[in-house]
Amino acid sequence: MTEEIIIAGFGGQGVLSMGKILAYSGVMQDQEVAWFPSYGPEMRGGTANVTVILSDERISSPILHEFDTAIILNQQSMTKFESRVKPGGMLIYDPNGIIHHPTRKDINILKVEGSRLAVEMGNPLTFNMIVLGAFLKAKPVIKLENVKKGLEKSLPERHHKLIPLNLAAIEIGQENLVVVQEVEVGN
Predict the structure, then answer these.
(1) Are 164 and 24 in contact (CB under 8 A)?
(2) CATH domain 2-181 topology
(3) 3-state SS class at 117
(4) Which among 106, 43, 47 is positioned nearest to 80, based on CA atoms?
(5) Tens-digit pLDDT profile for residues 109-133
(6) What is d(CA 76, CA 72) in angstroms, rounded to the nearest whole number?
(7) Residues of the chain with pLDDT under 50
(8) Which of 14, 16, 160, 174 might form a disulfide with 133, Cβ 3.0–4.6 angstroms?
């Protein structure tokens, strides 16, 4: 099993953190992992993306041109990465701020209103964990107990008190994933 993922959005949305937690969770699950961040010098408010590869086999390169899954959190990223999802692959997005929704007919399209749900949860900073939960519902490539270990590893110890909140956000994301379009494998 190899899963090649791009997570893309604005700096400050937790894009790199989501990728880092996913990568650490893969390590906790004894997988081979690559984590390859990319961001502009402006960080918060600029664009950011991270490639995460989870595999049972050695990973030859962290540089990818196509992805099994794209997790899209802003319009610029939708424009840039929708075309780079492999046919039969999956695109998950938060519709907040998306003007041009995905149009491809050969990929699975799912959405989760992470921004709205995070505000309803009372903590907008849980946005990325809600989106991560939606991804893990759609593709359970990481077990929840390993996500907890990944959170423990990636968060500074002073923030470990927030792990239950993050796990609750993951659960909310899993409960609120909406399938927009499903394609049959091989189409």
Answers:
(1) no
(2) Pyruvate-ferredoxin Oxidoreductase; domain 3 (3.40.920)
(3) helix
(4) 47
(5) 999 999 999 999 999 989 999 999 9
(6) 9
(7) 187
(8) 174
